[in-house]
């Protein structure tokens, strides 16, 4: 089994959009240009993605981590997250963040990786209501 992770490229567009239904074309192009996304592959077949942005223009924030269903709960998400964390550390960041809805099981995944609750967001505005969004963070000194 050969596992690889590479920065997202234009050639990944079709696969990316098979998993990510929230990103629009212009933002995808920006993720490619700014190298703010990764594709995880097993034996040269893409199976997962991670994209990120900057919270407050200064803190890397994972906005999507998704591994195809057949490959979930096998350590691939953990591996993709570790790659992102190491890349962020190499780029000079000392803190990363993410979020998940309070009714989603992903919060347990993130906590197992050392992420700690650091806030919450509620959107009580018509058309934008959703369960509380939990904000989680991790100091990258913890991965050294």
Q: What general form does the structure show?
A: globular
Give the helix/strand class: alpha+beta
Number of strands: 7
Described by strand count, sense and barrel closure, the largest sheet is: 7 strands, mixed
Q: Order of strands across the biggest sheet?
A: 1-2-3-4-5-7-6
Question: What are the SSEs and their pairings?
Answer:
Layout: E1 3-7, H1 13-19, H2 25-34, E2 37-42, E3 45-55, E4 59-67, H3 76-90, E5 95-101, H4 106-112, E6 116-121, E7 133-139
Parallel strand pairs: 4-5
Antiparallel strand pairs: 1-2, 2-3, 3-4, 5-7, 6-7
Task: Give the gist of this structure.
With 144 residues, the protein is an alpha+beta fold.
Name the features.
144 residues; alpha+beta; 7-stranded mixed β-sheet; 4 helices; globular
Q: What does this 3D model show about the protein?
A:
There is one protein chain. The protein is of the alpha+beta class. The chain has helices at residues 13-19, 25-34, 76-90, 106-112, and strands at 3-7, 37-42, 45-55, 59-67, 95-101, 116-121, 133-139. The protein has a 7-stranded mixed beta sheet, sandwiched between helices.
